[in-house]
Amino acid sequence: MSAEQTVRIDSTTPLTINGTVTTTPSGTQTVSGFITASLVKDPSVTGVYVFSLAEIPGVVAATNHLALFNPIGSGKNVIFGGAFISSTSASGSTITDPMRGFRATLISGGVLQADSASAKFVTANPDPVAEIRTGNPAATLDGAMFNSPPAISATTGVTPVHAVPVPGGTGPFLLVPGEGMVMRTAVGDVDQRWNLSVVWAEA
């Protein structure tokens, strides 16, 4: 009878293995080397997608710039994978209000983007069930997720790309049917330009 063993590795850093293995009936054998863990896609995931907006002008009033929404009845969970945000100022801006990410429900209106506007990680994947809305869609906001600062400059300014990942070991950030997330500014400047990208998976 043979025993089955499971090894859980929570790091992608190569692990050094040194020691001995006892075998029956022949004694011991020295073992050394490395084990390297590689991240692979969850087999339940049917597709991974990214949507990106470039140079969206700032708006003085509170504005929902981009929304990712898992519609009711989709039959899938949407897994938020991360956001990427950067900002420039065309003629200078002193507005300090950040681009904020929020969980949200009841997302509607604005401009519903075509499925073809989102890039698939694998072109053979099905079209996404998640909806991307731009142009200030309505939304009921829930908890805040992140903050990304704008460019502040007397003339032309720029921020580095701010990557917002899901921390490792926390499990997936799920958006079940009827839930979504919104990228929003409470105050803006017409000289601001925002670059926004969101990555998600569906299972």
Per-chain topology:
Elements (H helix, E strand, L loop, with lengths): L14 E9 L3 E9 L11 E11 L5 E7 L8 E12 L9 E10 L2 E2 L6 E2 L10 E4 L3 E11 L8 E2 L3 E4 L7 E3 L3 E7 L6 E11 L1
Antiparallel strand pairs: 1-2, 3-8, 3-15, 4-9, 4-14, 5-11, 5-12, 5-13, 5-15, 6-10, 6-14, 7-9
- Work out the number of β strands: 15
The gyration radius over C-alpha positions equals 23 Å
Given the C-alpha coordinates, what overall shape results? globular
Q: Classify the secondary structure makeup into a structural class.
A: mainly beta
Strand content: over 45%
**Mean pLDDT across residues:** 87
Number of helices: 0
How many domains make up the 3D coordinates?
1
How does the major sheet shape up? 7 strands, antiparallel
Low-confidence stretches: 1-13
